[in-house]
Amino acid sequence: MPPIRFKPPLPVRFKVPKGKILPLPQNQPDIQLGKSIVAMRPHRVSADQIEYARKILRRYMGRKGDFLINVHATYAVTKKPEGVKMGQGKGNIDRFVARVPAGRVMFHVPSLNPLAGFSPNFAAFREVAHLMPMACKFRVQNNTFPGNLSSGRR
C-alpha cells in the first residue's frame, strides 16, 4: 500500500458557485450533550452574524464560561461593483458565509448539569437565535433518562 500523503487544505479565497445546501445525513443526527441552538431551516449565515453571536455569548457567560461555535464562514460570496453591466466574468469576493443545513447545532454550551444561575431558556441563546437569519430551536440534551434508567444497576 502506498504511503498516505498529506494534502494541504484548499485556500479560502476561491470563488465558488452558489450551489445547494445539502441536508444532514439521516443516519448521523447532530446531537450533543448540553445546551445548544439548532438551525431549523437551511440558510447562509454571514461571518458578521457569527461574530455578533460570539460577542453576545461572551457578554452573558463571562470569561470563564465556555461555549463552542460549530459553524465557520469559509464560503466566499461574490458581488459585482455598483453600476457594472452584465457579463465580464464573476465579481470580486464581497463577504464570507457559512452554509448551515437544517438540524445543525450552531452554538453549544457543553454542560451536563444545569448552569448555576441560568434557567433552561438561556437568555443569551434567545438573543442569538433572534439574530440568526433562519428559525432556530433551543435544545437541552442531557444524559438523564426517565424512570430508574439513570440510577444504574442495584
How many extended strands?
Answer: 7
The backbone outline, from C-alpha atoms, is: globular
Q: In angstroms, what is the radius of gyration?
A: 20 Å
Mean pLDDT: 80
Descriptive report:
By secondary structure, this protein is an alpha+beta fold. It is built from two helices and seven strands; from the N terminus they run ββαββββαβ. It has helices spanning 47-61, 123-131, and strands at residues 34-39, 43-46, 68-69, 75-79, 92-100, 105-109, 136-141. The strands form two sheets. The chain has a four-stranded antiparallel sheet, covered by helices on one side. The chain has a three-stranded antiparallel sheet with strand order 2-5-4.
Q: Quick gist of this model?
A:
By secondary structure, the chain is α+β, with helices and mostly antiparallel strands. 16% of the residues lie in helices and 24% in strands.
Salient structural properties:
154 residues, alpha+beta, 4-stranded antiparallel beta sheet, 3-stranded antiparallel beta sheet, 2 helices, 24% strand
